[in-house]
Amino acid sequence: xxxxxxxxxxxxxxxxxxxxxxxxxxxxxxxxxxxxxxxxxxxxxxxxxxxxxxxxxxxxxxxxxxxxxxxxxxxxxxxxxxxxxxxxxxxxxxxxxxxxxxxxxxxxxxxxxxxxxxxxxxxxxxxxxxxxxxxxxxxxxxxxxxxxxxxxxxxxxxxxxxxxxxxxxxxxxxxxxxxxxxxxxxxxxxxxxxxxxxxxxxxxxxxxxxxxxxxxxxxxxxxxxxxxxxxxxxxxxxxxxx
Length: 242
Ligand code: PRP
Ligand code: URA
Known about the structure:
Its cofactor is Mg(2+). The chain has 242 residues and is of the alpha/beta class. Helix content is 28%, strand content 30%.
């Protein structure tokens, strides 16, 4: 099946007339209530352009990926519950604010997901982080679980599951099954990823309807090797070894 191209839209600041905005490919829209795509702002599209470019150096790939990861974490935190929290300001007035309710932890799908840990730590000081080592078999593209080490009280926490690439969805599905087997309710899991395939998102959203997904971009599709297209290639290789 030929992938349906993603929409092209004029991207730029709102004060600029539509005709003067440069054309850029933006994320496909999604029709699942539990899947949230970051707003396709000029900033996000410029950052994604950097990391998709095969000419981008490893140093730049790390720097620009980290910026997108920070945006994803900030948006992910918006999906956690808050309670009212009034405070008194230094001028003696009350400000009716909120604070987060409950405990969280991160869980990274190794290796590429570990790249997202610092972005989470930057927002949530001393956050606990669990690890699940899942690797896709290079021939079959099926995920294989090798190792997991998770906080002992994970069933009582909200879990931010971290993996930049969401292709067939096999790795993320296996990770969610590990979390559910440890007693984490599906509705307490938020899966943060940079680039997703439409089929991965659809299968996952239907399988886990109460789990939330936050993605920076839903791409066109998958190639014959189950790589996301246009994608960015192998995230782990570009971040860690190339
Ligand atoms: C990549 C990526 C995801 C998975 C996505 O990891 O980081 O974990 O593939 O593919 P899927 O949705 O089809 O399962 P990979 O297994 O290549 O290992 P890496 O993290 O060491 O690069
Ligand atoms: N893993 C990656 O790093 N990239 C893809 O496109 C698919 C799986």
